[in-house]
Structures are given as C-alpha cells and as structure tokens.
C-alpha cells in the first residue's frame, strides 16, 4: 500500500486520506507523494489460500489472493441483488468511502515496512496498509 505517483486523489477519498495524513504527521516525510491516490481501498486476508493447479495443491499468500477474494465477495453481493430484482453494485469506491465503510472491518494494527522505512501503520479509518478494512458480508 501507499500513494500513487501517477494518479491524484479522487474526490471520494479526499477526506479519508486527509485524516490519515494528519494522523501520520511528519513520519516518512518526503518519501511518498502526499497528493497521490492512496491504495488499497479495501483488504482481505490473503494468507494460506489453497490453490489447485493441474491436480497439485499448494497455498500462497499476498495480494494475488486478496484481490480475487474481494472480487468474489462483490460477485456474491451482485448475485443476491440481481436475484432480488435490484441493480448490481457497479463502481464501488464512492459507496465504500461513504456509507459502505460501516460494513467493513477496520484493521487497526500492523504495518507495511519497505523502501528503507518502517512503512505505514494501520490506523482507525482508511490507511495505506489495509485501506478501509476487510468486507463483512452480512453487513454489506
């Protein structure tokens, strides 16, 4: 997680990112783009995920697991909405940064060290370690 050097902060993320930067203070000053879009938006526990390829089973960790987990949750939510005759979710980020944040499990401990720093620390609210948190399917 971190901040983009290519994309500016989208309007739906402005308040959440500003709150994090205020809390961060001068930590890692000059080592990241404070005007860049923050990422990730959400997180998933992508650890020890079972994979089967050509009959062989093994576990892997990381964003390559978390991304499809989030996509699966959204797919299941869309399935339920469509079954009830409602529209699918569409572009989620404005929803997630507003009312949807209450349906996520905020992660407040942990960090992402790297680039000769201690990295960023997970905090209450959005942070560049776990975003807004992990999905709570029942609440979503």
UniProtKB/TrEMBL annotation:
<protein>
    <submittedName>
        <fullName>Tripeptidyl-peptidase</fullName>
    </submittedName>
</protein>
């Amino acid at each position: 997680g971190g901040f983009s050097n290519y994309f500016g902060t989208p309007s739906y993320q402005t308040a959440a990112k500003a709150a994090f930067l205020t809390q961060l203070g001068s930590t890692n000053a000059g080592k990241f783009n404070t005007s860049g879009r923050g990422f990730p938006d959400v997180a998933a526990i992508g650890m020890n995920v079972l994979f089967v390829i050509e009959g062989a089973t093994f576990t892997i960790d990381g964003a390559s697991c978390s991304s499809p987990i989030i996509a699966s949750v959204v797919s299941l939510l869309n399935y339920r909405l469509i079954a009830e005759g409602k529209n699918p979710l569409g572009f989620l980020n404005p929803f997630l940064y507003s009312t949807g944040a209450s349906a996520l499990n905020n992660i407040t401990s942990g960090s992402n060290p790297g680039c000769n720093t201690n990295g960023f620390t997970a905090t209450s609210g959005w942070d560049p370690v776990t975003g807004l948190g992990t999905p709570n399917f029942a609440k979503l």
